[in-house]
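agent> Task received from the user: take the single chain below, predict its 3D structure, and emit C-alpha cells. No templates, no multimer pairing.
agent> Plan: (1) validate residues, (2) run structure prediction, (3) serialize to C-alpha cells, (4) report one or two observations.
agent> Step 1 OK, no nonstandard residues flagged.
tool_call: predict_structure(input=
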Amino acid sequence: MKRPVFLGSAVAIVTPFSKEGVDYKKLAELVNFHLANKTDAIVVCGTTGEASTMPDTEHLNVIRFVVGEVAGRIPVIAGIGSNDTAHAVELCKNASALGPDGLLSVTPYYNKTSQEGIFRHFKMIAEATSLPIILYNVPSRTNLNIMPHTLKRLSEIPNIIGVKECNIMQTPDVARLCGDDLIIYSGEDGLVVPLLSLGAKGVISVAANLMPAQMSQMVHAYLKGDVKESLRIQLELLPLINALFSDVNPIPTKEALNILGWNVGDCRMPLCEMSPEGHDKLAAVMTQYDLPEYGKLHS
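)
tool_result: status=success, residues=299
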C-alpha cells in the first residue's frame, strides 16, 4: 500500500507575475492565505502556476521560495514535468534538493510517445529521486493519455505513488487494476465526489485558489463518511467551478483573483486576458459566493 503525500485538497497555486518577473511578496501572501484556510497541500509550478513559461532558474526559485514560506506546515508538491526526458530528470534532481514533500510530473506533450515511451520516461524520473511522485494525466492539454495498463506498470515502481487523473472515464479501470498501489487524485474540480466514490483520496484543485476551505471540507466530509454533505458542497460550488474553466486555465482564475483585489498580474503569453464578455460572466457568477476579497483580508 502506497502512502499518500496528502489527503484532501491541494491547491494548484497560481504564480503572481509583475513586469519584473515573479512577485514574491504576493506569492507569500497567497501561500499564507492557504495556510490559514485549510488547504491540505500546495502544488507549485504546475499548469495553473504557468511553469511552462518559466526558465529553469525561475522555476526552481519559486519552488525554493514556497518550500521556505510553508516551512513544513503542510506538504509542498513541486511540478517538474517536461516533454524532454533528460530535462525532466535534471529538473527532478534539482527540485528534489530544495526540500519539497513530493513531485508532480506531467505526461510528455507534443512528442506523442508510445505507452512504452511513457513508462520509460517516468521510470527514469523516478530513479532520479527518492521523493514520492504523482503522475499528471491530462490528455486535453498533452494529447497523450497514460493508459490504465501503463499506470499499473508504473504503480509497481516504489516511489510512484499516485496519479492526478483528468481522464475521468478511465478511472474505474485504473482503480481496478492498481488498487492500493496507486493513489488517485481528481484533476477535475467538478467531479471530485464521483472520483472519491472510486477510491480517490483528494483533489489537486484550481478552484481552491478561491475556495480552499470549501474544497478541503468537501473531500474530508466524504472521507469521514458524510457523502451527503460532500455532495452538497460539490453541487453548490459547481457554477463557480464551471466559470473558472470558461477559458483556458489559469486565465479565469487569475482574472477572478484580480477582480477580488489580489493583483496577481496577467498570465504570460501566449495566454492572454479574457474577453470583456467572459470577464463580465465570470464576475456575475462570483457575486453568488462569499469569496476572499484582498482588501477585507488585509485591512
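agent> Step 4: summary for the user.
The chain has one domain: 8-224.
agent> Done.
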